Automatic annotation (TrEMBL):
Residues 731-907 form the MAM domain. Residues 761-780 are annotated as: Disordered. It holds the Pfam family MAM. This is MAM domain containing glycosylphosphatidylinositol anchor 2. GO terms for cellular component: axon; neuronal cell body; plasma membrane; side of membrane. Residues 1-16 form the signal peptide. It is found in: Cell membrane. The keyword Glycoprotein applies. GO terms for molecular function: axon guidance receptor activity. Residues 18-118, 125-210, 233-318, 331-427, 433-524, 531-619 form the Ig-like domain. One of its GO terms (biological process) is homophilic cell adhesion via plasma membrane adhesion molecules. It comes from the Eukaryota.
Length: 939
């Protein structure tokens, strides 16, 4: 880059609150306006939904898409989309609903627009056949009344029609046929009633479902053949119920159809919601290889042919299993004594979970030898309905010789499952349990994040399981359960948190121990944690000589008595002291900030458990500038290989720090490493929202550039902002946005052009004039037009003026070889009172425009046409579009898609006859150019 020309201009009052508008760019079937300017966007299921949120405002608003609560399966409402375009590929019916676009930039109220997305679909219809129960005798369809019901899921509501063969059936077309909608399902189904079947009623019936081709959705149909053999399905299961198997076996379930016309379709379902992953279905056979206990349950064979109700047969698969057993000892219940004594009664109970429970058998051993029931040794097995899987051994009148090891053995009759044995020792040392808390273990004080052990000492023989639970409130234990088991009386908690502070109960379990009143004890746990403070981190920007106040606030701490605080700057102690118990915060003030005061300040608030830390980064860095929306006025030059670009930006919080004295501008061509830098000086103080501009020139076509802008104060460089500048070479305006691309209304004309869309324009008074959509055919698209209704009169003029387009001269004497630009637009001139549409070239320095470069009058038909005109300006210029009212109200003229491109026009539109007035203008302009060239040569 040889050199860079700079121009620096300031504009004021550019800050603006946000506005927002939603446009669509996906496969919309239709977009309609609702009340309160909300819109309905209709789309076909499976198409791509693409909504774009167009915003204005400065600073640039933040955009957020959200959605109202929809289907449970639709998770969009749990999140947000933070960019302009919402894109959903292959949209589902569950994703319909109202979508909101919200834009906010801190100025005024946020701008919110919504659009309702309606997803259209049509599923294949289904015909089901039924016969009233009271008439069902012997043969299913002989002289009987039959109902054919047609149902299809759709949006919008579906319409049904019935055909018998090629004959269209309607209400009243056949005395033996009645067509109606049940009151309780109105609009959702259509029933064809055949009264007292006749021979001609045995035929092919077709139901056609239609949504009237909305969204291009074609009609769908289904055919059902009704015969005198049509019958509902019946099936038979060739298996027992239940089926009891051992784990690891392969199980096959066989289902056959025994009736039904048309032939039924067989399916298998499970009570576990879905069939096991390894299951194999082949015809009516379901095979479960190497079955496990998790795969036990009910399995059903279902047969359906859409006639009557589906047939269903079920069987239950039971997988044999034995689970770990438990035991408990009950001392003499008649003497209210918890100890085992000679001459008293003792009961040993044993419980095992078994599947199936009716196959469970028990046996007892004493010291390894089989034990049989007797008058003193009574063996009983309790009723499975009362206490399933339990056996008792009652020892009456306990003798010294009864001490020993008793074993309870559980087995299943079917075999194949290993038996379970449980040993219980009865001796003179067998004593009931006792619980105590060791000295110094309650209350137990710990720090957050530590591993703690709550302990209860348990004595007794046999030693029981200890159950831990919360004693102070109904709350789960650390593992999520309400109780935790411990075999040694210790509850170990890893990474203890402040929420775990409280009382914990340890309690004996009756299982694997004595069946006596539970023993319990309580342990107090106190969890200390360092102070929680705010802010954890804060950046504070301030100018030199100004005060800075930093506040560190304590939110919570345990112990709540805070001991002390200390303020540090880069590990250098500034101030320390005891924390004021009456306040929950501490402050440090810099009365006048100097260069030595920049840095990281830390406030440590300390208690017995540790320290909470507030961090403040004090700096004089300026905030980042914010690039403004791209200018609509590109800077073109008459040199063939270069272009220009106008940067626009505002400064974020300019008064927060020292005055910005300059900006450092860096620019580099995309793909290259080297940055070119220069400083842009700033005179005076920058106000909030003040718009600044800088012209980038000598940019090489068609390269893109990365631009970096950095504010500079006495502190030094502030935060930078980077953007990409891309060459376009074209100005295009479709009038979709409210600013209409910086076009302005001429103040010296008779009336103004109007921005409108066909969806909002009221044409009931002038139905035979103006367009029915924008240039692309969309009723929602915008265009500009002149409204010729009263009070307008014949000859009134409306002029629309473009922004300035710059042409930079090579020398102060003007341009010797004027560059060419192609100016084009679409026009719509329909109506019997159409006047005239003119296009002018207005150059800088001219007090009046020359004659039009293009002109056309009269009715041109109800269609959009394009015109292209080559222009050759010698200075910065504007284009002017003038509409002149004709003799009556049916004279609306519209324009759309105005473009300006570098170079001569190529492929001009065919209606060149309409541009006759521009020919003389072009000849005149070429003559002027030729004279200027000759004068330049004489110099």
């Amino acid at each position: 880059m040889t050199r860079m020309l700079t121009h620096f201009v300031l504009f004021f009052s550019s800050a603006a609150s946000p506005t927002v508008r939603i446009i669509h760019s996906g496969h919309a079937c239709n977009v309609e306006e609702e009340r309160h300017t909300e819109r309905v966007y209709t789309i076909r299921e499976g198409e791509t939904l693409e909504l774009t949120c167009l915003v204005t405002g400065h600073p640039r608003p933040q955009i957020r898409w959200t959605k109202t609560a929809g289907s449970v399966s639709d998770r969009f409402q749990d999140s947000s989309v933070f960019n302009e375009t919402l894109h959903i590929a292959k949209i589902l019916r569950t994703q319909g609903g109202r979508y909101y676009c919200k834009a906010e930039n801190g100025l005024g109220s946020p701008a919110i627009k919504s659009i309702r997305v309606d997803v259209y679909y049509l599923d294949d219809p289904v015909v089901t056949v039924h016969q009233s129960i009271g008439e069902a005798k012997e043969q299913f369809y002989y002289e009987r009344t039959v109902f054919l019901r047609c149902v299809a899921n759709s949006n919008p509501p579906v319409r049904y029609s019935w055909h018998r063969g090629r004959e269209v059936l309607t209400q009243g077309s056949d005395k033996g046929v009645e067509i109606y909608e049940p009151f309780f399902t109105q609009g959702e189904t259509k029933i064809l009633k055949l009264k007292n079947l006749r021979p001609q009623d045995y035929a092919n019936y077709s139901c056609i479902a239609s949504v009237r081709n909305v969204c291009g959705i074609p009609d769908r149909s289904v055919i059902f053949r009704l015969t005198n053999k049509t019958a509902s399905p019946s099936i038979k299961l060739l298996v027992e119920d239940p089926i009891v198997v051992n784990p690891g076996q392969t199980v096959s379930l066989v289902c056959i159809t025994t009736g039904g016309e048309p032939p039924p379709i067989l399916t298998w379902v499970s009570s576990n919601d879905s069939l096991p992953q390894r299951s194999v279905v082949k015809g009516g056979t379901l095979t479960l290889p190497a079955i496990t206990s998790d795969e036990a349950g009910a399995y059903s064979c279902v047969a359906s042919n859409n006639v009557g109700n589906p047939a269903k047969k079920s069987t239950t698969i039971v997988v044999r299993a034995l689970k770990k057993g438990r035991f408990w000892i009950t001392p003499d219940p008649y003497h209210n004594d918890d100890n085992i004594q000679i001459g008293r009664e003792v009961k040993i109970s044993c419980q095992v979970e078994a599947t199936p429970p009716e196959e469970l058998t028990f046996s007892w051993l004493k010291n390894g030898r089989a034990l049989r029931s007797s008058e003193r040794m009574v063996i009983t097995q309790t009723d499975p309905d009362i206490s399933p899987g339990t056996t008792n051994l009652d020892i009456i009148d306990l003798k010294f010789t009864d001490f020993g090891t008793y074993t309870c053995v559980a087995a299943l009759k079917g075999g194949g499952i290993p038996e379970i044995s449980i040993d219980v020792n009865i001796s003179s040392t067998t004593v009931p349990p006792n619980l105590t808390v060791p000295r110094g273990k309650s209350p137990l004080v710990a720090r957050e994040g530590d591993t703690v052990e709550l302990e209860c000492l348990v004595s007794g023989k046999p030693k029981p399981i200890i159950l831990w639970s919360r004693a102070d409130k109904e709350a789960p234990m650390p593992d999520g359960n309400m109780q935790m088991e411990s075999y040694d009386g210790v509850l170990r908690i890893v990474n203890v948190s402040r929420e775990m502070t409280g009382s914990y109960r340890c309690q004996t379990s009756q299982y694997n121990g004595f069946n006596v009143k539970p023993r319990e004890a309580v342990v107090e746990l106190i969890v200390q944690y360092p102070p929680t403070v705010e802010p954890v981190y804060m950046e504070m920007r301030q100018g030199l000589g100004r005060p800075v106040v930093m506040t560190c606030r304590v939110l919570r701490a345990h112990p709540s008595r805070v001991l002390r605080f200390e303020w540090l700057l880069s590990n250098r102690l500034l101030h320390a002291g005891a924390f004021d118990a009456q306040r929950d915060e501490t402050e440090y003030t810099i009365r006048s900030l100097n260069r030595d005061g920049w840095g990281e300040y830390t406030c440590n608030v300390i208690n017995e458990a540790g320290a909470g830390k507030c961090t403040f980064q004090v700096t004089g860095k300026a905030y980042a500038p914010e690039f403004y929306y791209d200018t609509y006025s590109p800077l073109w030059q008459n040199r063939p290989r270069v272009y220009g670009f106008k940067l626009q930006w505002t400064q974020m919080n300019p008064n927060a720090v020292d005055r910005i004295v300059a900006y450092r501008l860096g620019i580099r061509q995309m793909g290259l490493q080297r940055w070119w830098e220069q400083e842009i000086p700033v005179d005076g103080t920058i106000n909030k929202g003040e718009l600044m501009t800088h012209n980038l020139t000598e940019l090489i076509k068609p390269e893109s550039y990365e631009v970096r802008l950095t504010p500079i104060t006495r502190f030094g460089e502030g935060d930078s902002t980077i953007r990409i500048v891309t060459y376009s070479g074209e100005f295009h305006c479709s009038f979709e946005e409210e600013p209409i691309c910086m076009f302005t209304q001429d103040k010296n004309d008779d009336f103004d052009w109007t921005r409108h869309s066909a969806a909002t324009r009221d044409t009931k008074y002038t139905p035979n004039t103006g367009p029915s959509g924008d240039r692309s055919g969309s009723k929602q698209g915008f265009y500009m037009y002149i409204e010729t209704s009263r009070p307008r009169k014949e000859g009134d003029q409306a002029r629309l003026v473009s922004p300035f387009f710059n042409v930079a001269p090579k020398n102060p004497y003007g341009i010797t070889n004027p560059p060419a630009y192609c100016f084009s637009f679409f026009y719509h001139m329909y109506g019997k009172h159409i006047g005239t549409l003119n296009a002018f070239l207005k150059q800088k320095g001219q007090t009046t425009s020359e004659g039009p470069v293009w002109s056309l009058s009269g009715n041109q038909g109800d269609r959009w046409k394009q015109v292209k005109v080559s222009i050759h300006p010698t200075a910065s210029f504007q284009v002017v579009l003038e509409g002149i009212r004709g003799p009556g109200i049916e004279g609306d003229i519209a324009i759309d898609d105005v473009t300006l491109e570098e170079g001569e026009c190529r492929d001009p539109p065919p209606n060149l006859s309409s541009t006759a007035p521009s020919t003389s203008s072009h000849i005149w302009l070429l003559c002027i150019t030729l004279v200027m060239t000759l004068l330049e040569g004489q110099r």
